[in-house]
Amino acid sequence: MTPTERRERLRAVLAGNACITPASVWDPLSARVAESVGFEVGMLAGSVASATTLAAPDLIVLTLTEFADQIRRITRASDLSLMLDADHGYGNALNVRRTIEECEHAGAAGLSIEDTALPIPFGSGEGETLLSLEEGVGKMKAALSARRDKSFVIAGRTSAPRIEGTEGTVRRLKAYAEAGVDAVFAVGLESVEQLDAIRAATGRLPIIVGSAPASVPRDELAKRGARILIQGHPVLAAVAKALHETYAHLHSGGKPADLAPRIATNKEMDALLRADQYKAWRKEFLS
Predict the structure, then answer these.
(1) What is the pTM of this model?
(2) Which residue range is the domain that position 278 belongs to?
(3) Are 270 and 155 contained in the same domain?
(4) Helix (H) or strand (E) holding 41
(5) Is residue 52 located within the same domain as residue 89?
(6) Runs of H (alpha helix) within the chain
(7) pLDDT at 125
């Protein structure tokens, strides 16, 4: 698929009636595995990129260059429509423009820019703070102005529900909708009433939900305009645990054969690595 085709597929999800959860991916192999079970939309989160590229926490120490390089590797190796959590856009509104250029060029289908004050300002302790509404709007406008492929999705994101409550959330997301974003993204929703308020204020734009009360089923979110639900990144944690258990087994003298029930077969690995395609290329070009 071309980058534009992948972006149009993501737009179709946002224009639909269902609420999906994308596959959390971080490299070409994880993207291939996600595709193999049927996912069409993937997500590379800033936190996951930091963990897998630097083994560092989500404190905005990853650079835009590192982020874009990883996007390029994923989109080269799979046809997933790749969404990005691009954090604060790696700086001010001018940096946001550069972020859009790099991520679009790398083949992503879309991204979100948030209004959190990042990196964490000096003196703020552990508390999360938001940019002024005016600076947030400026970032959204900068992102939209940098886009070349109009099918590339740009979402305005806020964590206001847990900081400024419903009123502040509605005020911010309404302003981002008026700036022209393709979707609004709310993190930390506490009730469906908040979702309803966002829906009413943003002209029925598609809503991405960063977290929602566990008691609210996905189809209920869908009825209220949510098209994407992010449910954390448990796949990475599962992989980390599997790595630990496998390394510990081998380090303690365990036999590789004992791992057979818990690991991919050679046939499964060949399928993920597209060994048959490379075999055909070897025959065609190296014989």
Answers:
(1) 0.95
(2) 257-287
(3) no
(4) strand 41-44
(5) yes
(6) 3-15, 28-36, 46-54, 64-77, 93-105, 133-146, 165-179, 192-201, 218-223, 234-251, 266-273, 275-285
(7) 66
Do 147 and 261 belong together in one domain?
Answer: no
Can you spell out the DSSP letters for 86-119? -TT-SSSHHHHHHHHHHHHHTT-SEEEEE-B--S
Query: Closest Cα partner for 50 from 41, 40, 58?
Result: 58
Structure tokens at 66: 């590192």
- Name the nearest CA neighbour of 143 among 116, 104, 169, 172: 104
| DSSP characters over 154-205 | EEEEE-GGGTTHHHHHHHHHHHHHHHT-SEEEESS---HHHHHHHHHHTTT-
Residues 129 and 110: their CA atoms lie apart, in Å, by 25
Determine, yes or no, domain membership for 243: no
Q: Is residue 251 part of a domain?
A: no
Q: Could you give the strand order of the β-sheet that contains 183-186, starting from the edge strand earlier in sequence?
A: 23-24, 41-44, 81-85, 110-114, 153-158, 183-186, 207-209, 226-229
φ, ψ of residue 151 in degrees (nearest 5) = -85, -15
Mean pLDDT in each 10-residue stretch from start to end of the chain (287 residues)? Answer: 97 97 98 98 98 96 98 98 98 98 98 94 79 98 98 98 95 98 96 95 95 89 96 96 98 97 96 97 96
Phi and psi at 44, nearest 5°, equal -110, 110
Cis peptide before 119 (omega within 30 of 0): yes
**48: region left, alpha or beta (phi > 0 left; psi from -120 to 50 alpha):** alpha
Question: Looking up tokens 């077969």, which residue turns up?
Answer: 265
